[in-house]
Every structure is written in structure tokens, then in C-alpha cells.
């Protein structure tokens, strides 16, 4: 059938002033053609848009991932059709399974187990390396533990394994999370009769107090209809960990309006104000501590004079109070002072003898106790404050010739400041703006349909970040007692001490990308994409001085920075994917990709030394072979993929940070989602992978823990710190990423209102660091929930860690893996009460 000239046709429906993209979004949130008053010319029955959604069983949790996912390639393919490993988690799934952090997301997504970035869940480790975060398809500023990424504010989260599409720009090889905010529902608001929304309150263990609210609907601007959606979240909660808390304000707003039949505009933003702490976890780590909870108490044997009477050990007091005992381990000034760094050579920990450790670096051994997991390296004086502002403006136009033109303008700023009493502090102020212009059109030839995208883009980042690590001493504090004058270590945020690094950089990135999705006949699909980026960078080293009083406004002190290091460079990226639809619902595929990535660290800063050397671009490559399938009339989604990916060029990785080290990961991932009936849904995911360092040449800078020097009594050096270039194997484990992990989950509806969920996870044992001398035990985790849901209200009770399992997560394994381990939370519960209107 054909539609009139002033309409277009899709799946037997004719549309006037509603675009196909808008209609797909309406279906995605449960609005049918009939509910919008759109009539089919040949049938009055509602039409299900996606081929892969069964009409026999409802998928209210979005398990089948059938709706269009533009975050990977931008063509609106479903996850089944996309020739890459990708998983989507809907807001309904997040609510039903009580997902509150990205660590919870990783439970249900194969290959995305995440180490601890000092307790702040900012980004996933995907396939063993740090991933990027995207917001509505545009890359966000780097969040390596700067603030916890808000999960509850998401309408959907897409987890992409491997590098992003060339259109989205260079990304880390591990993968990315793309957040589709709840305010995406503004697209449907203009078509509703009245406002609709929900208010929720959550309480629970450790004084959990969280209030959420959301509201969406229609507005009028002159004669134009405007859809809006707003979301807010307030939290003031304590924590499982002593002296820890979460205080957060989160606001989202979005607006969507058709300016004309052919032109549409979307704009909005998000504001997040978070206060909490970095969490160093347990210190004085031994195998006995992890296996039995046995902790060795005791105070430092020596404390330097407090010359300025501030109750802390300052830089000057370190230098004056801790002198070399006269016995060196290897080379001049090796093991000198409290921070015993071997700068004259590579350390073989097995050859260190007690006589080489200065006596003042010991502790006076006390009793052994069973350490409570709540006692961690957080002091009441510690803090971490972050403010994030995210704004976007999208303009979409469809020409009469069939071209679709989209302009995406994105802005984000992040300001943060953190202080930790064992001697670490950091502050930063970074903003970035990106504009993507995307031209898209479909071309049809004999037996071939090609969807084309062409995209020029520009991105500018203005970044500042400072860190203090000059005297970072974990083991002086006795966690059974807490900090005192012998263990408080001053930082630039509470004294006149110096910063260890103080970097400021400006970066402008010009990109041009091409992507073509070619359907040959009915079964073969060939997707090819390429991108070139030209980058101009300017980086400066600031004075190492007390600058915390103007931490949020470095531009107000133009004389603090030295002469800038400048450089320009460019890099090529590509993606090639081939898939074929076989009988029986099987779609095998092969993907090859290579990526050029800018080596940024926390707050998107770049060490000027790397800029000076010209090594600030890193190359990555990936090969992935997989099969996807849907069976039983669309009620089963299955995917399995084998991958081999590596960051192959990192010449400045030590300064760029752990998130940019040269890592190779290879393995197999599997995912199964099954709608057994309207009452029962089942899920399974599993991953087997190996993650290793590839460019260490037999040594790596690391802090040395008790497991690295079993021949030494650890009380000899726990008053100080051992660190240096440590001997490791040719390809040691990255640390913290288990070789095996799997999850089994299910939801059962006992009635139309009452349902229950259960989730079981197994995580295998894993080396805590690249030295491979300390293993974190395997563990099993069981979570469950029960909810009663009506059209007006919802009551849900969830229990995490039902078996009260004692388990641990590696803490920044590349540097501190054997020195600091994060004990995870014990059994806990939450109760949520929601009112819908």
C-alpha cells in the first residue's frame, strides 16, 4: 500500500506530522499507534514495531533488547542486528533488580567486572580495561573515580564491549557505557493528554535516605506542542563503612519540540552535586587478613616532631624527621626516609633483608584482632566533593531529498576536590564542548540497500588537575584505633604542603567520520566505517605549591603555570563488520577495528612530558567473532562472542595513569535472556578472559605489600612504605579482573501485582596486582527482592548479599593491589515506596 504525498508509510501505517524516529520512541515506552490516535489504513489493531518482539509474551523489563539502539553505530539497529557485543539494561530492569551503581550493572553484563577506583564507581572496567562514558551518544569527560555515575537517572544503559563507532569519536578499546537519561521520555510528552510522573522514597540499612521524583507531559509554546520530562534525586545516607556517607543532589530536565513537519529540536541537561569519600579499604594486607580477617595492630615506632603544632606530619617534617639509617638496599638514596623508594635500580623484593630497612620505619607490634569490614581508611576529616553540569542541544532536520541532518551540541564541566588523611589529595576543574554534525541517507541499488552517515565534528577540552602523592603512607594508621598524630599525613588541602603534579592543558580535536551499513540481499550485511582526527594540544606544568584556595578557578592565577608544551598530531580509526542471517535465527558476525585514542588521565589532564615526547596518542586494535540468535518466536535472545583486543601503543603510560596502560585481553562472553512466560523471565551471562600487561619489559613501578616480601616481618616497614620498579613476569596479570565470572538471574510474577527476583553470581579468585603474589578469594553472591506493583503505587523490598558473604575487590591494582584491598558490604536491605500519577 502507499500513503499520500503529505505522509510517509511504515509497517502498514501512515503518518502525518510524526516522524518514524518519534514513533519508534513512543513504542519503546509503551505507547501504541491506537493510544496516539494514529489509524492504520488496513487494520485497526495496534502494530508491534520490532520484528523480534514476540506478540505472545510481554517483555516489560526490556530483556530482549529489541528496541533500536543507536549508541553503537547510530543506524537504529536492535542489539540482535548489531554485529558487536552490546547489552542494554532498561530502567524497569534497574528498578526490578535494585541496581544502584555501575558495579551492579556489571553483574548482569558479561565481560564488565570492575576493580575499585578507591571506592568511587565512576566507570566500568570492560574486558579488563577502563571504559568511557557517553551521554546520549556523545563522549563525556573522563570519570576515573571522580564521582559515582548516577544509575537511577537512566532510562536505559547500553554497555558496548570494544571501541565505539567511528561517528562517536575515538574511545578506549575496552568499551563504553552509553547513558540514555530518563528525560529521553520528553519525546513522548507532547503526545500525552496530561502530565504523568512518580515519587519514590527509599530507606534501608545504614540510614539509607533517598527521595526521587519524575514528571513528564505536554506544554504549549505558541501553537507548537512541547514535550518535557524532569527528574530529581536527593540523598543523605550513611554507609556500611565508618565515617563514610553519600550526600547528593541530582537534577535532569529535557524538552522536545517539533518546529515543523521536517525539523525537530531536543535540549536539556543534568546537574549532579555529590559529596562522599575515596575509600582506601583495608591496609596492612596479608593473605591471613583476606582468608581469616586477622589484622595486626600497632602504632608507629617513631613520629617526627610536630614543629608547627598542627597534629599532622608535613612534608618538611618528613624530610627532617626521617633520615636514612645508613644501610641502603641498592643504590644511592634507596630506602631513604619514610617513603622508601628505590630510585637507583629495579627492586627484587625476594632479596630484601631486614637490615636494609631503617628502624624508624617500623611499627610496635600489638595484638592480632578480627577486623570489621566497616573499618577502612576513611577519617572524619576526609572529604570528596564533585559538581557536574551536563547540557545538550540537538537539532534534527529531514530534507525533501531524503537526507537527515542532525547537529548535536554537548557541554560538560566537572569540578572536584578530595582529601584523604593517609597523605593523598586531588583537585580539578575541567570543561569540554563537542559539536557533531551528522548527514545520513539511505541509498537503494539493485539488491543492495546502503545507509550512509558522514560526520564532521569538533571537540575542545580545557582541563586542570592537581594531585598530591609525595608522602602517601597507607600502613601507619592502625584501623582498630583510627588516625592520630602519628598517622595523619598533611596534604596541600589542609596545610602548606606541595602538590606532586599540577597540570593544565587545552586540547582541540577536529574529526571527520564515515559509516556505511550495506544490506546485500536479504541476509548479508557489511558495515564499514573510518575516521580521522587531528588534534592540537597545549599542556603546562604548574608550580607545585599550595593552590587549593583557587582550586575551582585556575584561570585567575595566570602566572602559576610554566611555558606550555605544544604539539599537533593525527590518527586514523576504522571498523569493519560482516554479518549473515542464517536459517534458524542465527546471525554470525566478524568485526575488526582499530582505534586512535588520546591518553588522558583524571580530569582529562595530560602530562606535559608526554606532550613533549610526542607520545600522547595511543593505538588499539580489536578482533571479535560472534553469533547472535533469537528463538521460540523471539522469546529467547542468545549471544556468544570471542574477542582479542589490545592497546598496542602506549609510550607514556606511567604518567598517563593506570587507565591507559598497555593491556591485552582475550576471552569468550555469553549472554542468554529467555521470556519463559508472562510470569517467568530468566537471564544468564558468563565470561572467561585473560587480561595481561604487554609492555612492561620485566619490571613495573608498584608499592610493595607484605605478600611481595614474605621473608620480612611486615611490622619492620609498616611505619613507612616500600615502592619502586619491581620485577614482574613478561606478561603479568593486570590484577583484579577474574578469569571466570557468571550470573544467573530470574524474575517470577506470582500475580499481576506481586513479583520476586533472585540473582546469583560467582566470581573466581584473582591476583590482586601484577606482582601475582596475593590472591583475592573467589566468592558467591545472592541478591533477592519482592515487589507489589499497582497502577498507583509500588512497594519493593530488596536484600543484597543474602548469604552475608565476606568478599573483596581489588583497589587500583596496578599500583596498590597488594597494599590496599576493599572489603565489600555485608548483608543489607532497602525498602522503596513509590506513588505514580
Report on this model:
It is found in: Cell outer membrane. Pfam families: Plug. Keywords: Cell outer membrane, Ion transport, Iron, Iron transport, Membrane, Receptor, Signal, Transmembrane, Transmembrane beta strand, Transport. It comes from Alteromonas aestuariivivens. Residues 79-176 form the TonB-dependent receptor plug domain. This protein has 837 residues and is mostly beta strands. The protein has 2 domains: 185-280 and 375-696 and 732-836, Maltoporin, Chain A, CATH 2.40.170; 295-362 and 712-729, no CATH class. 6% of the residues lie in helices and 47% in strands. The chain has 9 helices and 40 strands. It has a 22-stranded antiparallel β-barrel. A hairpin with a 2-residue loop joins β11 and β12 (224-238). The longest helix has 9 residues, at 20-28. It is globular and about 80 Å long. Mean pLDDT is 85; it is low at 1-53, 324-334, 546-560 and 651-656.
Topology:
Blueprint: E1 8-10, E2 13-15, H1 20-28, E3 86-90, H2 91-96, H3 102-108, E4 125-126, E5 129-130, E6 132-135, E7 138-139, E8 154-161, E9 175-181, H4 186-189, E10 196-204, E11 208-221, E12 224-238, E13 245-258, E14 263-276, H5 287-292, E15 294-300, H6 315-321, E16 339-347, E17 363-370, E18 383-398, E19 404-420, E20 424-445, E21 448-468, E22 501-520, E23 524-541, E24 565-580, E25 586-598, H7 608-613, E26 617-631, E27 636-649, H8 653-656, E28 663-675, E29 680-693, E30 699-703, E31 721-727, E32 740-749, E33 754-763, E34 766-767, E35 775-776, E36 779-789, E37 793-800, E38 808-810, H9 813-816, E39 821-823, E40 828-836
Parallel strand pairs: 6-9, 16-31
Antiparallel strand pairs: 1-2, 3-8, 4-5, 6-7, 8-9, 10-11, 10-40, 11-12, 12-13, 13-14, 14-18, 15-17, 18-19, 19-20, 20-21, 21-22, 22-23, 23-24, 24-25, 25-26, 26-27, 27-28, 28-29, 29-32, 30-31, 32-33, 33-36, 34-35, 36-37, 37-40, 38-39
InterPro entries: Beta-barrel_TonB_sf (IPR036942), EF_Hand_1_Ca_BS (IPR018247), Plug_dom (IPR012910), Plug_dom_sf (IPR037066), TonB-dep_rcpt-like (IPR039426)
Protein name: TonB-dependent receptor
Keywords: Cell outer membrane, Ion transport, Iron, Iron transport, Membrane, Receptor, Signal, Transmembrane, Transmembrane beta strand, Transport
Amino acid at each position: 500500500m502507499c500513503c499520500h504525498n503529505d505522509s510517509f508509510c511504515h509497517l502498514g501505517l501512515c503518518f502525518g506530522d510524526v516522524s518514524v524516529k518519534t514513533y519508534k520512541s513512543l513504542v519503546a515506552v509503551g505507547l501504541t499507534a491506537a493510544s496516539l490516535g494514529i489509524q492504520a489504513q488496513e487494520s485497526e489493531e495496534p502494530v508491534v514495531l520490532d520484528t523480534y518482539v514476540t506478540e505472545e509474551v510481554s517483555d516489560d523489563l526490556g530483556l530482549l533488547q529489541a528496541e533500536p539502539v543507536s549508541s553503537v553505530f547510530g543506524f537504529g539497529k536492535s542489539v540482535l542486528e548489531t554485529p558487536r557485543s552490546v547489552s542494554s539494561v532498561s530502567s524497569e530492569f534497574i528498578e526490578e533488580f535494585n541496581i544502584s551503581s555501575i558495579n551492579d550493572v556489571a553483574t548482569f553484563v558479561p565481560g564488565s567486572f570492575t576493580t575499585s577506583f578507591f571506592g568511587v564507581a565512576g566507570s566500568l572496567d570492560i574486558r579488563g580495561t577502563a571504559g568511557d562514558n557517553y551521554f546520549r551518544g556523545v563522549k563525556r569527560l573522563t570519570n576515573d573515580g571522580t564521582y559515582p555515575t548516577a544509575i537511577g537517572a537512566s532510562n536505559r544503559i547500553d554497555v558496548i564491549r570494544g571501541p565505539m563507532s567511528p561517528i562517536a569519536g575515538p574511545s578506549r578499546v575496552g568499551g563504553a557505557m552509553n547513558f540514555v537519561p530518563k528525560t529521553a521520555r520528553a519525546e513522548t510528552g507532547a503526545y500525552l493528554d496530561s502530565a504523568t510522573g512518580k515519587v519514590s522514597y527509599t530507606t534501608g540499612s545504614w540510614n539509607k535516605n533517598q527521595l526521587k521524583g519524575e514528571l513528564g507531559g505536554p506544554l504549549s509554546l505558541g501553537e507548537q506542542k512541547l514535550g518535557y520530562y524532569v527528574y530529581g534525586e536527593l540523598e543523605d545516607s550513611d554507609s556500611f563503612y565508618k565515617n563514610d556517607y553519600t550526600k547528593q543532589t541530582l537534577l535532569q530536565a529535557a524538552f522536545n519540540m517539533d518546529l515543523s513537519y521536517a525539523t525537530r529540536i531536543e535540549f536539556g541537561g543534568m546537574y549532579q552535586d555529590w559529596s562522599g569519600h575515596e575509600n582506601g579499604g583495608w591496609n596492612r594486607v596479608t593473605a591471613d587478613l583476606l582468608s581469616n580477617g586477622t589484622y595486626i595492630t600497632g602504632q608507629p615506632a617513631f613520629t617526627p616532631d610536630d614543629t608547627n603544632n598542627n597534629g599532622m606530619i608535613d612534608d618538611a617534617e618528613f624530610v627532617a624527621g626521617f633520615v636514612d639509617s645508613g644501610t641502603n638496599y641498592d643504590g644511592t638514596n634507596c630506602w631513604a626516609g619514610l617513603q622508601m623508594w628505590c630510585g637507583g635500580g629495579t627492586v627484587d623484593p625476594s632479596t630484601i633483608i631486614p637490615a636494609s630497612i631503617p628502624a624508624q620505619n617500623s611499627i610496635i607490634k600489638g595484638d592480632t584482632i578480627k577486623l570489621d569490614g566497616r573499618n577502612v581508611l576513611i577519617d572524619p576529616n576526609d572529604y570528596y566533593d564533585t559538581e557536574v553540569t551536563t547540557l545538550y542541544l540537538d537539532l534534527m532536520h529531514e530534507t525533501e531529498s531524503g537526507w537527515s541532518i542532525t547537529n548535536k551540541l554537548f557541554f560538560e564541566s566537572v569540578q572536584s576536590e578530595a582529601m584523604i588523611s593517609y597523605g593523598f589529595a586531588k583537585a580539578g576543574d575541567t570543561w569540554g564542548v563537542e559539536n557533531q554534525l551528522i548527514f545520513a541517507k539511505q541509498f537503494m541499488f539493485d539488491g543492495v540497500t546502503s545507509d550512509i552517515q558522514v560526520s564532521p565534528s569538533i571537540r575542545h577540552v580545557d582541563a586542570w588537575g592537581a594531585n598530591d602523592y609525595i608522602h602517601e603512607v597507607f600502613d601507619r594508621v592502625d584501623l582498630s584505633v583510627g588516625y592520630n598524630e602519628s598517622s595523619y599525613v598533611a596534604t596541600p588541602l589542609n596545610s602548606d604542603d606541595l602538590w606532586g603534579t599540577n597540570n593544565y592543558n587545552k586540547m582541540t580535536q577536529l574529526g571527520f567520520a564515515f559509516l556505511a551499513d550495506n544490506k546485500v540481499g536479504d541476509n548479508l550485511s557489511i558495515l564499514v566505517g573510518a575516521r580521522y582526527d587531528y588534534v592540537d594540544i597545549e599542556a603546562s606544568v604548574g608550580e607545585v605549591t599550595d593552590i587549593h584556595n583557587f582550586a575551582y578557578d585556575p584561570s585567575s592565577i595566570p602566572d602559576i603555570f610554566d611555558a606550555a608544551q605544544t604539539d599537533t598530531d593525527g590518527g586514523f580509526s576504522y571498523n569493519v563488520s560482516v554479518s549473515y542471517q542464517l536459517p534458524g535465527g542465527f546471525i554470525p558476525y566478524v568485526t575488526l577495528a582499530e582505534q586512535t585514542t588520546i591518553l588522558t588521565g583524571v580530569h582529562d589532564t595530560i602530562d606535559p612530558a608526554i606532550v613533549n615526547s610526542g607520545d600522547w596518542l595511543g593505538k588499539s586494535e580489536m578482533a571479535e567473532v560472534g553469533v547472535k540468535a533469537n528463538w521460540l518466536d523471539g522469546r529467547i535472545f542468545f549471544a556468544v562472542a570471542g574477542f582479542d583486543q589490545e592497546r598496542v601503543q602506549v609510550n607514556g603510560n606511567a604518567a598517563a595513569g593506570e587507565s591507559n596502560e598497555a593491556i591485552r585481553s582475550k576471552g569468550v562472553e555469553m549472554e542468554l535472556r529467555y521470556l519463559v512466560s508472562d510470569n517467568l523471565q530468566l537471564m544468564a551471562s558468563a565470561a572467561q578472559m585473560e587480561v595481561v600487561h604487554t609492555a612492561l619489559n620485566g619490571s613495573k613501578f608498584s608499592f610493595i605489600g607484605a605478600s611481595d616480601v614474605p621473608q620480612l616481618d611486615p611490622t619492620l616497614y609498616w611505619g613507612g612504605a616500600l615502592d619502586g620498579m619491581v620485577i614482574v613476569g613478561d606478561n603479568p596479570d593486570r590484577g583484579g579482573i577474574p578469569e571466570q565470572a557468571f550470573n544467573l538471574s530470574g524474575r517470577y510474577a506470582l500475580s499481576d501485582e506481586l513479583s520476586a527476583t533472585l540473582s546469583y553470581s560467582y566470581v573466581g579468585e584473582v591476583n590482586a596486582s601484577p606482582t601475582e603474589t596475593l590472591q583475592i578469594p573467589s566468592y558467591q553472591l545472592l541478591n533477592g527482592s519482592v515487589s507489589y506493583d499497582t497502577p498507583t503505587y509500588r512497594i519493593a523490598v530488596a536484600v543484597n548479599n543474602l548469604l552475608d558473604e565476606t568478599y573483596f575487590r581489588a583497589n587500583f591494582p596496578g599500583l596498590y593491589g597488594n597494599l590496599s584491598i576493599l572489603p565489600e558490604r555485608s548483608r543489607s536491605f532497602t525498602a522503596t515506596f513509590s506513588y505514580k500519577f
